[in-house]
Amino acid sequence: MGHIQAENLTLGYSRKEVVQGIDLIIRKGEFLSIIGPSGVGKSTLLMGLNATTSILGGRLNVLGRNLGTIRYNELKALRAKIGVIFQGFNLVSRLSVFDNIASGMLHRKPLFSALFKHYSNQEYEEIFEYMKVVGIEQEALSRCDRLSGGQKQRVAIARAIAQRPEIILADEPISSLDPVSARSVLETLKNANEKYGITVVSNLHQLDYVLKYLLSMMETVQMAVLALILSVTIAFPASLFASRNTLNIIIPGNHRLARFLKNGIYTAVRFFANLSRSINEIIWALLFVSAVGLGPMPGILALGIHTSGVLIKLFSEGIETVQQEPIDALAATGAGFIKVICYAVIPQITPFFVSMTLYRLESDVRSATILGFTGAGGIGIFLFDKLRGYENHDVTTILIIIVITVAVIDRISAAIRTRYT
């Protein structure tokens, strides 16, 4: 039999059922995390393991005791074997780190010794060992209200270990901590699990972070799509003026004024294309962040301006490769330049336009993930934060989300290309 065993367990408050149909076995020395978004009953299940929440159905055995039929005195003795680490630390702020950790021993100390804080040499050594395990020994005499959140959580862990429990229940121990402190606390719990063989059950809301990453990835894709719409809106008409053959359709003739206009327009559009694409998206993003502030908008503008320069060059080169004969044939009928372009130029270059546009969408999605490093919105903000905090697991999660997103966009792009080629 395991340390904890549940069969068709239903827990709740009064008559309100919160979690239902739970079956689980947790063996001695295991480290188990209950992962899920907020509000699904993780804390209810965790607190049910020391009979804090009501058993409304099924069976729950903890350390060989049936919590559904256990008596009060037996429950009190059982709880002495179960340490609890609370989300809010639950320390006595005005007491020192040493005294808070020592309070975990109160259940096994005589009343007189507890009242006068009398500890034997062995107990002092024991408390100091617990402080070393969690890495808080340098703050032994500091008051807890002067500690950081990560330090307070380590004190709470040491207090639970000082209880000499067989089981530790950790209620979202990293929810209020920064990434670096969160990793340190989880490693501390793991060390306690391995060193003392304590069974550890914790609940985490990592799915909240995954959901947050997915929403940020959606924002990144939206940035790329809006930037692409902006860039195509600029690049398509501009590419007609950056191509010699279509410029001859728009401004016919070879007289001096016509040549002057065509050369001037061609040079100006080409200069804009070269300028906008030669400056990297990150530089554009930094400029727009300083101009319009943090958020997705500078990212959209940065990608839109840079991509418009790239597409002007690609579109114009594609236009200059079209066959001239259909253009001459339509022009010979007396059709205006708009009709000639719509009926003789665009049908020839549509597959090329679609292919280049979709390619830039994939490229813009990848670029948008990095623009968050500058504060320009999207998942890049989280990626930058996790890289700085050496949160490699979260970095891996974010990279997997990016890779999957780019792969999905690639499949969709391939299907659209097949349609137009």
Description of the molecule:
It is a single chain. 34% of the residues are buried. The chain has 421 residues and is α/β, with parallel strands linked by helices. It has two domains: 4-204, Rossmann fold; 209-420, Orthogonal Bundle (MetI-like fold), CATH 1.10.3720.10. It has helices spanning 42-48, 72-79, 97-102, 111-115, 121-134, 149-162, 179-196, 206-241, 244-250, 256-278, 281-292, 296-319, 324-332, 337-371, 380-388, 392-420; strands at residues 4-13, 16-26, 31-35, 54-62, 65-66, 82-85, 167-171, 199-204. The chain starts with a strand and ends with a helix. It is 61% helix and 12% strand. It is built from 16 helices and eight strands. It is elongated.
> Which fold name corresponds to the CATH topology of the largest domain?
MetI-like fold
- Major beta sheet, specifics? 4 strands, antiparallel
Structural domain tally: 2
CATH architecture of the largest domain: Orthogonal Bundle
Q: By helix and strand content, what is the structural category?
A: alpha/beta
The total strand number stands at: 8
Under CATH at level 1, the class of the largest domain stands as: Mainly Alpha
Looking at the chains present, what oligomeric state does this protein adopt? single chain
Task: Tell me the β content.
Answer: 5-15%
Mean pLDDT across residues:
84
Calculate the terminal CA-CA distance, rounded to whole Å. 65 Å
Cα-atom radius of gyration: 33 Å
The low-confidence parts are none
The total of helices stands at: 16
Order of strands across the widest beta sheet? Answer: 2-1-4-5
CATH superfamily of the largest domain: MetI-like
Categorize the overall geometry: elongated
Helical percentage? 55-70%
Order of helices and strands: EEEHEEHEHHHHEHEHHHHHHHHH
